[in-house]
């Protein structure tokens, strides 16, 4: 095929033939509780995936991370040069027992169940995309690498070392987070910082001598309002204040109050500017004799739309055109493992999974059944294009 040839169309028939088995296997995964930290369920899923990948001559290894269970790494060597990573996660946000409350089901063109969209259907889509390539006899890749982790929903704390290790061995990464519509791709995501803001005041009896006290709660309230006002100064940065607590006795002026703050920005500059503004708020006081400390806990760095990422978008758009869809890459406020891969220097394209909605809501989460037959060929075609033409 020529430079302008597209490949996705050649996989349409394969994905039509896979559909029944795909949803049967998806049901198996969805009907296993695998909320982050539910080790038994996570490991059952990884064992099942290991069996399915072995059917296609992948070398599979399991890598334990304490408190979360196993991560799965699968490799298959080819005859080409490009090393492609396909990545997803098997953990969900749901508590134990979610499967009993809402087991897998298909009706009215959608599949439902805990984690069906975010992102067990994406994990399965990745497996079927590489299966389609293998069964078509395509082997012009250096290596296909599949990495499925177990703790993405809480920031991938246990799997980050493994992700970064693999990042040094690959050329491109494709992340299987779900799409909100058939035309969606993601070329950038906000990065995150987490803060704890703690105020120390002076306690006193609230009835007998309140004037001797210095309320940490009142000082924190002033600071919360000042932080909320930062949205007008940094319109592209979000400041979300959560988890308030203080000393509790009703007859005592509180001498401690704290809150947590989640800050998100599409750029590192935005995160650093936000940090400087928060430090300034922490360094001043409205209530005399109160002392404030601010602790910054860096999270995932922003995933920014570099030239290499934009090139991946264009390659995906070529494959989308062959399927009659006009793909559009957009920024997302939420983070994913794409943030980690980009920070490690790997050109990464995100939101290549199936289409649906209602994520993180057990009553609403769903996958559009019809999206499998489109997003699957798109992914397979993109992998082939990356190997032959990039």
TrEMBL record:
Top-level division of the source organism's lineage: Bacteria
Swiss-Prot/TrEMBL keywords: Carboxypeptidase, Hydrolase, Metal-binding, Protease, Zinc
InterPro entries the record matches: ArgE/DapE_CS, Bact_exopeptidase_dim_dom, Pept_M20_glutamate_carboxypep, Peptidase_M20, Peptidase_M20_dimer, Peptidase_M20A
Protein's UniProt name: Glutamate carboxypeptidase
Classification via PROSITE patterns: ARGE_DAPE_CPG2_1 (PS00758)
The Peptidase M20 dimerisation domain, residue ranges: 188-288
GO molecular function, one term: carboxypeptidase activity
